[in-house]
Structure formats: structure tokens, C-alpha cells
Amino acid sequence: MKVTVENKKGLEKDIKVFIDKETIAGYLDTKYEEIKKDVVLKGFRPGKVPTEVLKRQFGKAVYGEVIDKVLKDTTTKVLEENKIKPAGQPKIDLKSFGEGKDLEYIISVTELPKVDAASLKNLKIDEYVVKINPSETDKRIEQIAKTQNNFKDATENYSSKNDDLVIFDYKATVDGKDFKGNEGKETQLVIGKDLFIKGFDKQLIGVKKNENKKVEVRLPESFPEKDLINKKAIFDCNITAVKNPEKVKINDEFAKTLGAKDLNNLRELISKQINDEFKNSLDMISKKQILEQLEKQKLENLPKNLIDQEVKILSQGMKQDELLKNKKSLENQAIKRIKTGLILNAYGEKNKIKVSQEEVNKEIEKQFRMMPGQEKMIKEYYEQNPSAIDGIRGSIYEEKIIEQIKKDSKINKKEITKEEAEKILKDENEKNLKDQAKLSNQTNEENLNQKDKVKKKSTSSKKNNVKKAKPTVKKSKSIKKVSKK
Predict the structure, then answer these.
(1) Which of 42, 104, 351, 473 is within CB 3.0–4.6 Å of 96 for a Cys-Cys bond?
(2) DSSP for residue 97
(3) What is the pLDDT along the chain (485 residues), one digit of tens a residue?
(4) Can you give 258-304 as a three-state secondary structure string?
């Protein structure tokens, strides 16, 4: 195989490939030997059909299949050996082919631009560590304690009031008749929460232990027995206990009810939880700093086909007129995204960063945990959409690259308080909103400029039409004068 690489304009290359007819004949002979085993023809024993007979019967099909494979294999090999990374599918132009002939073809390819991944070392990045004040942790624990229901038995002859817990057995009737699900045992209601049937718990105000109370309510729209909806039901309640709310004692026993070993361990867990709530958002700011510095890296001659593809992705769902209005803005976004992607990918290759199938599986398992009961649906979705798996793999790959860049960067660690973290995130959010507004204004200006150009062009066209019309009018008048004379 002879290969000649010709540099054309910019990143475009033409690669001439020549494979002599003897080599092609070798590929064909191998293919005929392969199919000979399975071909059954009348008059010949299985596996004993002569090659010449096979050529007469299947020649064109076999040649086409062999050439397709040769083109595919040699094109891949040529690009790899010449270290050419194509930006899109290469084009093949056959110059000479046919049985008994040399194979000659040209690969037209647009190459990805070379990226200097070494320039990504020593980027400057802020990394935030939130120092949680113990008082913040205790405050969060107190908030959790308030949400825990804790009640103690009321004194004898105590009459229930708001916030008390009433425990009762009941039997309900509609028009004096029983119905399905009309009995309940050890039913618990906190008066004032109104969580059973609307207006029910208020009628339990003033009840005492071992007392009987009749409660009358309308059955709700959500009641399972549809023919009883909105009908009056009488609940005959036997009050078995009345309990008063008791402030939860924050101690080791309380900590154990929340899954901690003791109160100190609970404080550690809550402190970490508060820190984690800020960590993801603050890490996004560090990542943004990296990406902004990547955008400043020099990378020229981006392939147009990549820009067009990225614009197509960014403009999904847009109408044609909207696409035309925002074309410049979309192209700028596309260039930034392609540039960042190429630089990150080059850095990933240089550092031999890979994503294992196990890492992809773990990410999918996270989604299982986030959507309990829908595991089968999620599994089927990924089985039917391989591109979604590629999306997960791409996200993991990018995160691993970002982490590696951080390791090679100059980290400015900043220990901040919870209040400082909140202010940083608030400022960042406001900055993002301003950037979005600025981008929107630029787009509007582009649209106005476009309209102005169209208007000027239209006005200019009208003027030209008037100028062209005048001589015609004059000529017409002169003709009339002549006719009068």
C-alpha cells in the first residue's frame, strides 16, 4: 500500500491511497475460500465448488463486499498511522477499481486542530472549604428535633386541645348503614393538623380518655367508595388515649433514632451535610473558572462542519426565523463549546484518562436510588437508547478531566463561613443573570442590525427602481409631443 498525504487549505487534507491488484486478488481469494465452505451448488459436493464457478456465480457481490472492507480497514489504518484525527466522516473518492485492476482512491478529510494540552498546567483556581460553626450545627439539630413527634400521656380527666395527640377506635356509618372500610383501630390524630378527613380533628377538641364521641363529616372526593363521596358519615369514636406534646430531648438516645452512634456523631454528620449542601455549588464556581481559562486558550481554524453540527444541537426546537435571528450568537456559543471540548479531550488523552463500564453502571445505579420503583423503566430506557449511555460516559469523562486539571493547577484554598458561602453563591447567581441579560441584549442588537440592513436594502432597492422608471416616463412624454406636432 502506498500513501501520499497532500495538505490543502487550512486543516483539509487529501490522502492518496494505492493498493496493487495482486494484494486485492489476495483479499478476494481469502473471501472465496471463506464462502466455499457454506456454498451448496448442484453437481458439486459441499465445500468442493471450484473458485472459478464461485466467481461466475457471485463475483460482483464478493468483489463489492471485499472492496468495502478494504476501504474501511485501510482508511482507518492510514488515518491512525499518519496521526490524523478527522473532524467528521472522511469522504472517499474511488479513482481506479475493478477485478484485475489496482485500487486507487483519495480520502478527503478535515483534520481536528492540534491542541497544546501542556498549556493547561498551572491554571489558577479558587477552592472553597466551608467552616461550619458549631452553633449552625446545633441550630439544624434543633430544627430536626421540632419535626419529631414526641408525646406523653396526659393527666387523668384532661380535656384535649390543639397540638394534642388523640388515639381512638371508630366505627362509621352512612344513613345508619355500614360500608367497606368503616372501622379503624388505634387511629392517631394530632389536633390542628387536619390530616384525616377535613374538619374531623377539630371535633375531637375537649375529649377525654375512655370517652365516646360522635363525629359527623362529609366523605371527601378521594374516598375509595365512589357512591359515598360527599355523603354525611357519622364516626362513633372510642377515645383510648390523649397525649400532650413534649419537647424532644436532644441527647444520645435522640441521635440514635436518627441513625447516629451518639450526639457527637450526629453533630459530625449534620456538619458534613451542611458542608455538602454548599460543596456542589462552590465546586461549580471552580469548574467555571477552569472553563473560562480554557476559552482563552488559542485554538484557530475550527472545522466548519463541527460548528454547523454544534449549532444544530444548540438550535433544536427553534423555528427557522428564530434560528436566522440568533445565528451569530449560536455560532459563538458553538465555537466556545467545541474549543473547550477539544482542549479537554486532548488533556484527557495526554493523561490517559479512561471511563470504565463499572463507573457508568454506578452512575445508573444512582439514578435507580433517586427514582425508587422506576428501575425497570430506567433500565429499558438505557437499553433502547445507547446514545444516553454515551452521554453518561461523556459526563463522567469530563468530570475526571476537570479533577485532573485541578490537581495540576495552582489551588488557592479559601476557608469561608456559611454566611460567606451564601454571599459568594448569591453574587455568582446575580453575575450569571447579568451575563444572560447581556447575551440577550447582544442577540437583540444583532436582530435590530439585521432588520436595519434589510430595511436599508429595501429602501435602496426602491430608490433604484424610481431612478430606472424616470427615463421611461420622459421617453413616453417626448413621444406624445412628437405625435402632436
Answers:
(1) 104
(2) -
(3) 898 888 777 788 899 999 999 998 888 888 888 877 777 777 677 777 777 877 887 888 888 889 999 999 999 999 999 888 888 889 999 998 888 889 999 999 988 888 877 777 778 899 888 888 899 899 999 988 888 778 899 998 999 999 999 999 999 999 999 998 899 999 999 999 898 999 999 999 999 999 999 999 999 998 888 899 999 999 999 999 999 998 888 999 889 988 899 999 999 999 988 888 888 889 889 999 888 888 888 777 788 888 888 888 888 888 888 888 888 888 888 888 888 888 899 899 888 999 999 999 999 988 888 887 788 888 888 888 888 999 999 999 999 999 999 888 888 988 888 888 889 999 888 887 887 776 666 555 555 555 555 455 544 444 444 343 333 333 333 323 323 33
(4) CCCCCHHHHHHHHHHHHHHHHHHHHHHHHHHHHHHHHHCCCCCCCCH
Whole-angstrom CA distances from 216 to 119, 183, 199, 229, 233 are: 78, 15, 9, 14, 6
* Residues contacting 333, CB < 8 A, separation 6+: 310, 314
**CATH classification for the domain delimited by 149-245, as one of 3.10.50.40, 2.60.40.10, 3.40.50.280, 3.40.50.1110:** 3.10.50.40
Domain with CATH 3.30.70.1050 in the chain: 2-111
Nearest-angstrom CA–CA distance, 435 and 326: 16
Count of residues for the chain?
485
